C-alpha cells in the first residue's frame, strides 16, 4: 500500500492547531496532529515525518516546566516550522532568549515588514506595493535574542523577530499565525514550506478511495458489517465506501423514529436502496419512539430516551444479521483529535448528544471507521468521488433526535405533523432564493404556545413557530443568518397560508453562544 509523505504537527495547545492541519490538507499534504506529551524520541523515529510544525500554545516558555519537544527533534534533518509558542520554544531550545511582557503584546491584526535578506519561505509575500504584509498575532511573550545560526527576515512593531530562519538547517520560526484567515497570505507560506520539504501533494481523495477500499477489505475479510445510516453526510459516505469495498457483506440500518422531516425516510431509503444498490433495513419504529416519548417534556429526558431506544433498536436488528462482526461508524478526524485533546478540562454538559458511539462495547462488535483521518470537507470530496449526488453531500446536518428537539415541551403527533409541513416550506423558500449553500443549518421549531390571530375575518387560535437559520464552521459557534425583510415576510406569509395549525411566525436572531443552534 502507498505510504504517503507525512507531516507531523506537534500540538502545544493552541486554539487554532486544527487550522494548521486544514491548511496543509488543502495543499494535498498528509499530516497528523499529536499532543506534545506523546511526541517522544521513539514516536519520532516511528512516525518518520518529512517535515514538522510546532503549533502555538497558551503557556509561556519562560515558566519552568512549560511544554517542550524532545531534543532529538532538531537532529532529524527535516524542516521545522515554529509558530508563536512554537517559535519561542525553538529559540529557547537552540540558544536564543524569550522574554515575557514589557509592552510587546500584540493581539489581532499586525503588519510585518521584510528585512534586507530574501527568504524562499516568503516568496509571494510583500508584493502588493505597500511593502508590508498583514498577519495575525496573539502573543504576550516575545523573542528577545535569536538562536545562533538564525537570521531575521521580517519584523513587526511588537515582534522584532517576527520572521526568523536558519536556512542551512531549514528551521523557520514565526511569531504570527499563518494558518488563520486574518493572515491573508498564510497559505503561500505553507505552500513554500511544504515545497521546500519535498512534498509531492500525494494526498487526494481519489488516491484515498482506493487505499481505503483495500484496507476495509483486509479488515473485514469474508465477515459481515452493519452500519447505522442516518442519511447525513458522514454515515452516508462511510456506507458508500464500505459498500464499494465489500458489497453485499454490508447491511445498513436506517431508523425511522417518527421524528424525521417530510419525505426524509423515502429519500434516504430510495437513494441508497434503489440508486446505490445497498442493502438497507428501513426500521419502522415510530410507535416505539413516539409511545415512550408521550407526556415527556424535559429536554434531557427526551434525549436520553431517544439514545436508549436507538441502541435497543439497533441491537435488535444486528442480532438478526447472521455473522455480523463489524460495526461501521462515520467518525471524523476532529472527533479523534478532540478525544485526545491537549487542553481537555472539566466542562459542563449542555446537551447529551446522541450518537451510536458506545454500541460496540455493549454489542461485542469490532469497529470499522474509514473516515477517521478525514475532515468534513474531505469527506464531502470523497462522497463526490463515490458518486453520491450533490443533493446528499451538501445537506445541512440533522441531529439524531430529529424533530424531538425542535418541539420544545411535550411532543404530540399533531405538532410533529404541523412542524414537518412548516419546515418543508421554509427549506423550499431557502432553496428558491438560492441561499441553501450559504447557510450551515436551517429549520423550524414549533413553540408550545397558541396565540390568537385573524384569518378571513375569523378568529384563529393556533401554534406559533420560530424560524432558525445559522452560519457556522463547525457548529461550535454560530451566527444567525441575515435574511432580508422581504424574504422573511414572504416566508411567514407562505407558512401561515400553507400550514394549517400555525398562525404566527417569528425569526430567532440569537447567536451561539449564548444560545445553542437547536432549541433543546
Ligand atoms: N435515524 C437514524 N438511523 C440510523 N442511524 C442514525 C440515525 N440518526 C443518527 N444515526 C447515527 O448516529 C450517527 C451520528 O449522527 P450525526 O448527525 O452526528 O452524523 P451524520 O448524520 O452521519 O452526519 P451529519 O453530521 O451530516 O448529520 C450517524 O452517523 C448515524 O450512524
Ligand atoms: O447527531 C446529533 N445528535 C444530537 O443529539 C445533537 N444535538 C444537536 N446536534 C447538532 O449539533 C450542532 C450543534 O447544536 P447545538 O448548538 O444545539 O448544540 C447542530 O448542527 C445540531 O443539529 C446534534 N447532532
Ligand atoms: N499564541 C501563542 O502561541 C502564544 C504563545 C505565548 N503563550 C505568548 O503569549 O507569547
Ligand atoms: Mg445527522
From TrEMBL:
Residue stretches making up the GMPS ATP-PPase domain: 203-395
Enzyme active site: 84 (nucleophile), 177, 179
GO CC, one annotated term: cytosol
Catalytic activity reported: XMP + L-glutamine + ATP + H2O = GMP + L-glutamate + AMP + diphosphate + 2 H(+)
This enzyme's EC code(s): 6.3.5.2
SUPFAM superfamilies the UniProt entry points to: Adenine nucleotide alpha hydrolases-like, Class I glutamine amidotransferase-like, GMP synthetase C-terminal dimerisation domain
Pathway this chain belongs to: Purine metabolism; GMP biosynthesis; GMP from XMP (L-Gln route): step 1/1
InterPro entries from the UniProt entry: Class_I_gatase-like (IPR029062), GATASE (IPR017926), GMP_synth_C (IPR001674), GMP_synth_GATase (IPR004739), GMP_synthase (IPR022955), GMPS_ATP_PPase_dom (IPR025777), Rossmann-like_a/b/a_fold (IPR014729)
Binding site for ATP: 230-236
Entry keyword set: ATP-binding, Glutamine amidotransferase, GMP biosynthesis, Ligase, Nucleotide-binding, Purine biosynthesis
NCBIfam families on file: guaA_Cterm, guaA_Nterm, PRK00074.1
Subunit and interaction comment: Homodimer.
Main function: Catalyzes the synthesis of GMP from XMP.
Record-given protein name: GMP synthase [glutamine-hydrolyzing]
Species this protein is from: Salipiger marinus
Amino acid at each position: 500500500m502507498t505510504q504517503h509523505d507525512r507531516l507531523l504537527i506537534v500540538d502545544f495547545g493552541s486554539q487554532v492547531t486544527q487550522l494548521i492541519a486544514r491548511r496543509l490538507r488543502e495543499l494535498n499534504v498528509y499530516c497528523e496532529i499529536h499532543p506534545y506529551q506523546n511526541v517522544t524520541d521513539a514516536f519520532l523515529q516511528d512516525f518518520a515525518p518529512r517535515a514538522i510544525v510546532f503549533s502555538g500554545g497558551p503557556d509561556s516558555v519562560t515558566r519552568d516546566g512549560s511544554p517542550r519537544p524532545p531534543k532529538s527533534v532538531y537532529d532529524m534533518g527535516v524542516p521545522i516550522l515554529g509558530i508563536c509558542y512554537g517559535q519561542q520554544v525553538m529559540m529557547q531550545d537552540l540558544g536564543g532568549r524569550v522574554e515575557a511582557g514589557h509592552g510587546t503584546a500584540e493581539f489581532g491584526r499586525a503588519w510585518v515588514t521584510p528585512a534586507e535578506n530574501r527568504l524562499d519561505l516568503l516568496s509571494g509575500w510583500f508584493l502588493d506595493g505597500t511593502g508590508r504584509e498583514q498577519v495575525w498575532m496573539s502573543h504576550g511573550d516575545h523573542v528577545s535574542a535569536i538562536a545562533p545560526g538564525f537570521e531575521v527576515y521580517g519584523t513587526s512593531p511588537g515582534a522584532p523577530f517576527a520572521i526568523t530562519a536558519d536556512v542551512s538547517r531549514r528551521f523557520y520560526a514565526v511569531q504570527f499565525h499563518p494558518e488563520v484567515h486574518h493572515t491573508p497570505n498564510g497559505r503561500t507560506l505553507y505552500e513554500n514550506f511544504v515545497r521546500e520539504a519535498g512534498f509531492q501533494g500525494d494526498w487526494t481523495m481519489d488516491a484515498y478511495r482506493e487505499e481505503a477500499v483495500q484496507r476495509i477489505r483486509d479488515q473485514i475479510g469474508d465477515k459481515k458489517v452493519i452500519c447505522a445510516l442516518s442519511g447525513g453526510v458522514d454515515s452516508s459516505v462511510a456506507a458508500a465506501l464500505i459498500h464499494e469495498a465489500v458489497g453485499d457483506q454490508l447491511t445498513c440500518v436506517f431508523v425511522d423514529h417518527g421524528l424525521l422531516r417530510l419525505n426524509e425516510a423515502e429519500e434516504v431509503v430510495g437513494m441508497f436502496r434503489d440508486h446505490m444498490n445497498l442493502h438497507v433495513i428501513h426500521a419502522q419504529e415510530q410507535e416505539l419512539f413516539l409511545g415512550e416519548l408521550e407526556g415527556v417534556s424535559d429536554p434531557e429526558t427526551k434525549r436520553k430516551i431517544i439514545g436508549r431506544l436507538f441502541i435497543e433498536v439497533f441491537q435488535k436488528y444486528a442480532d438478526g444479521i447472521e455473522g455480523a462482526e463489524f460495526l461501521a461508524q462515520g467518525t471524523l478526524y476532529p472527533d479523534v483529535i478532540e478525544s485526545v485533546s491537549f487542553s481537555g478540562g472539566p466542562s459542563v454538559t449542555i446537551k447529551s448528544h446522541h450518537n451510536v458511539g458506545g454500541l460496540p462495547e455493549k454489542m461485542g462488535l469490532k469497529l470499522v471507521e474509514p473516515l477517521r483521518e478525514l475532515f468534513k470537507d474531505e469527506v464531502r470530496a470523497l462522497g463526490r468521488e463515490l458518486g453520491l449526488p450533490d443533493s446528499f453531500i451538501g445537506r445541512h446536518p440533522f441531529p439524531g433526535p430529529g424533530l424531538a428537539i425542535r418541539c420544545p415541551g411535550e411532543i404530540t403527533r399533531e405538532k410533529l405533523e404541523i412542524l414537518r409541513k412548516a419546515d418543508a416550506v421554509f427549506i423550499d423558500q431557502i432553496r428558491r432564493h438560492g441561499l441553501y449553500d450559504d447557510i450551515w443549518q436551517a429549520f423550524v421549531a414549533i413553540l408550545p404556545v397558541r396565540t390568537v390571530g385573524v384569518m378571513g375575518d375569523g378568529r384563529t387560535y393556533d401554534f406559533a413557530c420560530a424560524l432558525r437559520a445559522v452560519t457556522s464552521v463547525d457548529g461550535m459557534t454560530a451566527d444567525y443568518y441575515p435574511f432580508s425583510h422581504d424574504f422573511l415576510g414572504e416566508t411567514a406569509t407562505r407558512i401561515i397560508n400553507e400550514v394549517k395549525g400555525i398562525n404566527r411566525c417569528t425569526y430567532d436572531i440569537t447567536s451561539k453562544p449564548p444560545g445553542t443552534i437547536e432549541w433543546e
